[in-house]
Amino acid sequence: MSKILPILLMILGLAGGIGAGIMLRPAPPEPVAAEDSPPKPVEKSEPSALYAFDSQFLVPIVEEGRVTSLIVMELALEVDENQYDTVAAKAPLLRDRLLQIMFDHANVGGFDGMFTSNNAMALLRRALREGASQVLDDVVLHEVLITNIVRNGA
Questions:
Q1: What burial letters (b/e) apply to 133-152, b meaning 16+ CB within 10 Å?
Q2: What pLDDT is stored for residue 34 in this prediction?
Q3: Per residue in 18-35, pLDDT tens?
Q4: Minimal CA–CA distance to 139: which of 75, 93, 79?
Q5: Which residues contact 100 (CB under 8 A, 6 or more apart)?
Q6: C-beta separation of 92 from 135 below 8 A
Q7: Cα-atom radius of gyration of the chain, to the nearest Å?
Q8: In this structure, how many other beta carbons lie within 10 angstroms of the beta carbon of residue 90?
Q9: pTM flag (> 0.85)
Q10: Which residues of the chain carry a pLDDT beneath 50?
């Protein structure tokens, strides 16, 4: 009897495992008939263009009432090609808004420490994209690109 019990337990365990596998098996995928649904047309997007600002953005880092370092940034906006002229016409407004966002970012310590980490740069890009979108109203803004960033000073 003592030799039969382990064999019986192995058979019960094997049967339980097979039963659980059958019960938990995923349902087979439903066959898709080719004539039921036509393929969705691929959306054609406008070719994009990069609007690069003609000069750099300078952001002072102020600590205890004095400028301790300077952030030098170059930005570009990815927009639809047919809206490039609209963006160029609003460049002074864009520059003002983007500078204010960068000043705010500097004032809350966004350029301290490891300011080029993924999280810090993602926060800055998101804020810049939202600010630029507000200025550009109807222009489709795909992305704000930080093409160059340097910290000069301590």
A1: eebbeebebeebbeeebebe
A2: 53
A3: 877 777 777 777 765 555
A4: 79
A5: 131
A6: no
A7: 29
A8: 17
A9: no
A10: 42
